[in-house]
Amino acid sequence: MHTLKELSWFFRAYWKRYTIGILFLFLIDVLMLWPPRLIGETVDAMRNSSLTTQDLTRTVAILLSLGVGLYAMRFAWRHLLNGGALILERTLRERLFAHLTRMTPSFYHRKRSGDLMAVATNDIPAIEQTASTGVLTLVDSLFMTLLTLGVMVTVIDWKLTLAALIPMPFLAWSTAYYGRLLHERFYLAQEAFGEMNDHVQQSVSGVRVLRAFVQEKEDIEAYRRVSEKTLERNVSVSRIDALFEPTIAIIIGFSFLIGLGYGTYLVFTSAISLGDLVAFNLYLGLLIWPMFAFGWLVNVLQRGGASHKRLSELLVEQPDVKEVAHPVTAETPNTVEARQFSFAYPGSEKPALTDITFSLGAGETLGIVGRTGSGKSTLCRALLHQYELKEQSLFVGGVPIEKLSFAALREKIAYVPQEHLLFSRTIAENVAFGRPQATEAEVLHALKLAEMSNDLAQFRDGLQTMVGEKGVTLSGGQKQRISIARALLLDAGILILDDSLSAVDARTEEAILRHLREERAAKTTIITAHRLSAVQHAELILVLDEGRIVERGTHDELMQQNGWYAEQYRRQQMERDVAG
After folding, report:
1. 8 A C-beta contact, residue 478 and residue 450
2. Residues in domain ABC transmembrane type-1 (predicted)?
3. Does the residue 45 lie in any domain?
4. C-alpha distances out from residue 360 to 269, 364, 454, Å
5. Measured distance CA(295)–CA(303) in Å, rounded
6. Claim to verify: residue 342 and residue 293 sit in the same structural domain
7. Is 370 in a helix, a strand, or coil?
8. Is residue 426 part of a domain?
9. What is the β-pairing status of strands 413-416 and 494-498?
């Protein structure tokens, strides 16, 4: 019942649909009480030899009319209640998806992809069942039970009714006991399903690595263990699930036995008629569905409750970074500034960046280099405001980042991350992802700037070539260049390339950088790289080490300093000359 209470917001929003559906259910339950009484009266008339052809015809006509009417009303409530539940499922999916898009990277560090998929694919349908089957069984079993018992007590015999209900307390106890076990086991089963989803997702994504390290058998064995765990937990749910109907059937069987035995005695003592006994047993038969429905209701509610708990645990999560209530408009375009900026990842005591200071004017290029793990990508992510930052330390367009709206900040910045994610769509759709309204000419121009035109000509379908899951049909360099083209198509004031030229050769890199200088003369560019030739044209180069700036200046100034930058540049030039 708690789950239905939690969903009250939805029932209030669609109260007309549910009210009409429940009204049809009530009418069906009322009309279902008529046939047993008609049959009982017919039996008594036959026994008394008073049944006429006209009476029998009238009874058959009434029963046929009831059948047609009940059919129409059953269609109506199914359309209303089940349709409403499907609306709930769609609403919850949209709410979950919107919530996931708002969450920051730290949320995805804590949550497994498999668990998130399990909530969307398994838990939300279980909640939908609560809003359809749960409401149906609750209302129908309650109405049918009360109405049927009322007729049995008032029309047939209250003593016979009371005797037939003796086994019912055992039904209440057993369903409550099974329901508690079902809730616990279903929650664990859903968790196991999430683990299995997560394993499959990682195996499919990393299939090349698995094959490269010849780990197919080990991964299959690991999957077998996860799937067996999922199977065991689902079987434990099924064991409890399987006990519901037999338990209810046994208890109802005892009710029939008592009703038939005691009812026969009442007939012999003339306390009730034979027709009353026939009607009573038919009414008792009408109680079979409510009793089964009651057990089913407990089952559905417990499953829905466990699933709703898992969904709620996700939806109550709040993003680490909250948008400012009253955002400010940027004063100057395309400028970036850091003032003694320091940052530590959530949950980490060691700072990832310490005392970072620089100023980048419109149209300038900033190069960021350093050893692996020195903080280059962290600085790029900070500029995107993916994490909570120290106030008044990072500025875009002369305004502190924390005072800009998310939309305004991200409209200003085009970002190409190290991990190049392409969708299982065409090349054109991937490039135009940020600007779906872009023309084919604009897409082709962006690909030309990213030095992808020659590769594109080799594809049979050109722009309409499907790139496969995560760009599986493309090389690493092709994926990088399509990602760069996607960012260039946005024509944002600030472009961040986070080591986005690592998979292309030196000649292609030089051509791309030349295109960037020509096309983005008035716009700002930030480039992080391991290959120093990618940043040697920058107006300012920062060398990071353990999150601190250890060298800064132009390429010529850094070469004169004869530090890490100069040493690394000479080594890379020697390697290039030897390779050439």
Report:
1. no
2. 20-303
3. yes
4. 104, 6, 34
5. 13
6. no
7. strand
8. no
9. parallel
Task: Give the pLDDT score at 277.
Answer: 75
Whether residue 69 sits in one domain with residue 202:
yes
Q: Are residues 281 and 367 in the same domain?
A: no
**Residue at 142: amino acid letter:** L
pLDDT tens digit string along 351-394?
899 999 999 988 899 999 998 889 999 999 889 888 888 888 89
Check: CB of residue 414 under 8 Å from CB of residue 495.
yes
Number of structural domains the chain divides into? 2
CA nearest neighbour of 379 among 486, 238, 499: 499
End-to-end Cα spacing for the chain:
74
Q: Is residue 550 part of a domain?
A: yes
Look at residues 254, 281, 315 and tell me which one is the last residue of a structural domain: 315
Backbone region of residue 562 per phi and psi (left: phi > 0; alpha: psi in -120 to 50; beta: other values): left
The identity of residue 568, as a single letter, is Q
CATH code where residue 65 lies: 1.20.1560.10
Q: How many other CB atoms are found less than 10 A from the CB of residue 65?
A: 11
pLDDT tens-place string over residues 81-116? 888 888 888 998 999 998 888 888 778 878 877 778
Distance CA(554)–CA(161), nearest Å, equals: 96
pLDDT of 542 above 90: yes
Q: What is the DSSP string of 299-348?
A: HHHHHHHHHHHHHHHHHT---SS---SS----SSTT-EEEEEEEE--TT-
Q: Each residue of 21-41: pLDDT tens digit?
A: 888 888 888 888 777 777 777
> Looking at the structure, do residues 39 and 6 belong to the same domain, yes or no?
yes
φ/ψ (deg, to 5) at 397: 65, 30
Nearest to residue 459, comparing CAs of 441, 482, 434?
A: 482
Do 356 and 308 lie in one domain? The reply is no
Q: Tell me the C-alpha distance between 398 and 298, whole Å.
A: 60
In the block, tokens 């986070």 appear at 498
Residues 301 and 357 in one domain: no
Q: Are residues 165 and 232 in the same domain?
A: yes
Give yes or no: residues 218 and 360 share one domain: no
- Would the CA dihedral through 399, 402, 408, 411 be positive or negative? positive
Each residue's pLDDT tens digit, 265-323 = 887 887 777 777 777 777 777 776 776 666 667 767 777 888 888 888 888 888 888 87
Domain that holds residue 554: 336-418+496-579
* Residue 366 burial (10 A CB sphere; 0-12, 13-18, 19+): buried
Token look-up 């669609």 returns 14
Token pair in block for residue 6: 């939690």
pLDDT at 579 over 70: no
Question: Residue 546 maps to which CATH number?
Answer: 3.40.50.300
CB 498 within 8 A of CB 379: no
Say if CB 156 and CB 276 are below 8 A apart: yes
How far is Cα 20 from Cα 176, in angstroms, rounded to an integer? Answer: 30
Asked, for residue 360, whether it belongs to a domain, the answer is: yes
